Amino acid sequence: SAARDRYIKKTKTVCTYCGVGCSFDVWTDERHILKVEPGLGHANGISTCVKGKFGWDYVNSGDRLTTPLIREGDRFREASWDEALDLVARRLSEIRAKDGPDALAFIASSKATNEEAFLVQKFARQVIGTNNVDNCSRYCQSPATAGLIRTVGIGGDSGTIRDIEQASMVITIGSNAAESHPVLATRVKRAQKLGRTKLVVFDIREHELARRSDLFLRPRPGTDFVWLSAVSRFIVEQGLHDRAFVEARVNGLDEYLESISGYTLAYAEQETGIPAATLEAFARDLAAQEGVCILWAMGVTQQCGGSDTSAAISNLLLLTGNYGRTGTGAYPLRGHNNVQGASDMGAMPDQVSGYQRVGDPLTVQRHEREWGVTLRPERGLDNTQMIDAAIEGRLKALWLTGEEMSLTDANANHLERGYEALEFFVVQDLYFTNTARYADVVLPASPSLEKEGTFTSTERRIQRLYQVMEPLRGTRPDWQIYSAVARRLGFDWSYAHPAEIMDEIARLTPFYAGVNYARLEGYETLCWPVAEDGTDTPLLYRDRFHFPDGKAVLYPATYKPRQNAPDAEFDLHLNSGRMLEHFHEGNMTFRVHGIAEKAPDTFVELSPELAAERAVQSGQWVRLISPHGAVRLRALVTGRVSGNEVYVPMNARRAEDAVNRLTGSGGDSITNTPAYKDTSVRMEVLNDV
Ligand code: SF4
Known about the structure:
Distance between the termini: 56 Å
Number of strands: 28
Domain 4Fe-4S Mo/W bis-MGD-type: 8-63
CATH class of the largest domain: Alpha Beta
Strand order of the largest sheet: 5-4-18-17-16-6-7
Bound molecules: iron/sulfur cluster
Oligomer: single chain
Number of helices: 25
Protein name: Formate dehydrogenase subunit alpha
Shape: globular
CATH architecture of the largest domain: 3-Layer(aba) Sandwich
Keywords: 2Fe-2S, 4Fe-4S, Iron, Iron-sulfur, Metal-binding, Oxidoreductase
Strand content: 15-25%
């Protein structure tokens, strides 16, 4: 009826789950979500995945926090916003006065908007005066960014998601894209089905894309650097590289070749277990392709040498001339909806927005003019270092936004010791999370459907989201919370709307120079870098790489073998990752009824051979034990894993059984990203439950 239609509203939003960046029209009646339709989005077109289509009920979960909480001894009591914000401002200022600005640290959320991530780092740098600020890309994608910055100069996907369909060969390495980035994987599957694209998968697990691939190769865990370097060396040795491209556009060939001189195909076979003849055939095929895209994710980055392997991927693309054209290039697949944006916005300890170094004189000058304070030139603490500093007593206060660190960080038991050592801990989230149990103040935030802002997807695409519904009573959008505390500490930012924050971002960030809300109206999007006149850059490196002379660099990286290979005591290799139905730790998706029913809990995948050897059947309880902790899980016997390989999804109903009780703190030497995938465990079969 006409009366009813008056209340039904259609609003454009952007998916709040993975980094593909699908966009939707959401039909609502007040807070009731009637339907979610794929919009005219660049990434998805008419397709979507189960999370984007059905995964929104978490906004109306009865578990939403609706009032700030303040700790009193072992309990929490409800407080007004004014009381909670006054307390946060007072404690932050007392700790700064007593222990200096570097005793405080801030973590931005990769689920929140660009504008909010920008304000977290602005708060740290302008209001407090510290570079101790980071975001969760530290746990996933920082090594990919580091590898690309060393070789081509920009830490982002080379082209758009649609461009991948134009490649004659798509290679995925350590990426379960069909479950982690479903809509992007659909495009790859379609291109392959139409006969346009050959799909090659390197992975230790036989996931869906592996089963569909034209060639599936299973290197030993953590050895991708070796086959990449051996294939690169073979291609040059046989004269199959793109000589003209390398001569015209790339520096450092000699030094690079020297660095990979020992990487013969025979050595690669010995180290990775892939036959030399198979690698040779693959190398010849790759070198003959029109266009190659390489997609990679956590199987590469969450290793001791994640940055070096990411550089090795880029080196192979450079040698074969696979940059600067549609259907070529490097595609690190970003996990969270806005993990690209949180890094773009400078929620990092050494860079402000747009990857500008904190010590760079021009950057300092620009920020001085805009913010009226001088940036500190030295690097601050990253996420991993923050926890160590808390345990050592150097870090006293932490303000964490929208992240369930207790489940997603490596070495959860160590992490919780860090929380306990803090003098003051603020957790800002939708729910009373496992991490919130350790907080002194818990602030109830609003999810994406309840606010305006922008997200930047894996393809560097900036998109607007509109407010679908009012913030749930008692909650506030993150940008308003930071603004309210900044005001209490003497900095009146006075933003009336997130559009004004974006205008400031544009003034401070050359990559975002031409970004404003008017240019992002509705389904309009921009891929950064965006020039002041609004011209954007869907495809990078057409004419030049992002270095002063415009040339890329073949980077002489080094192999960092894994440190925790299985031994007599811990005899199984543990792998972890996502599953289609759940997002990360599952805090949102476990609160979506249909999803929780379909995938009620986590499990451990065992190979048929291991299950037979240990006499375990699907459904039986087992305990996995590592040097760092133990968890109890149900077994699932499946051919996806082989031999002594076990796999546990990262979502968990019970924090005490989260896979990251098992992982350790050691990691990539360049970025401090934990080597989640370098973990060995032993298994006990539990017959008594
Ligand atoms: Fe959302 Fe990613 Fe699914 Fe698209 S593919 S609907 S962005 S979770």
